[in-house]
What we know:
Blueprint: H1 2-19, E1 50-55, H2 61-77, E2 80-85, H3 90-103, E3 107-111, H4 119-127, E4 132-135, E5 142-146, H5 150-165, H6 187-202
Parallel strand pairs: 1-2, 1-3, 3-4, 4-5
Helix pairs in contact: 1-2, 5-6
Amino acid sequence: MRRKWLYISLTVFMLFALAACQPAATQPEPGTEVQEEAPAAETTQGDKVVIGLVQIDRSHPFHLGEEAGATEAARRYGFDLKITSGEGDVTKQVQAFENLVNEGVDAIAVNFIDVDAFGPAMEKAQEAGIPVVCLHSETEGCATVLGFDEWYTGKAVGEYAVELLKEEPCWEIGCEVANLQGALGQGLNEARSGGFTNIMDEY
Length: 203
């Protein structure tokens, strides 16, 4: 029952986080129904549920938007939220993740800098019985993965690029296309590039 409740709580929590791509307004719009706070989320032992959020950094507007959404969800649903980050450094991020495991939090959500660097850390979380919600990237041990269909996004961009290229003189002789990626090691960037280059390969 406790595990079931945690999964429900995490899902709601991350829905708020992902919806908040930019900081939310501090006051509701006129006529907007204000949702009342739910009772505090508790474990079977009666303690408050503690959820950790491990970010890439705490300066990028998108990451701050996720934090704002998570903070609002914690306020509404009554769980404790611990936010930390790797400050852009994968070694620091793995350490921040392992610190939450050692603290014995109830669940962890993580936005990976390099998903491949988290193998041993994910095993530690699994051994401790701590479910991990993986944001935007997938690896062994994820309780669930939340994010966008990045392969589809890359594919759509590729299809649009083809339509633009067809109007260029190079189309008949062979156009050169560059693919500028984000941080290497993030599953979302690999998927975006995969969807894009898949379309490029067709032409």
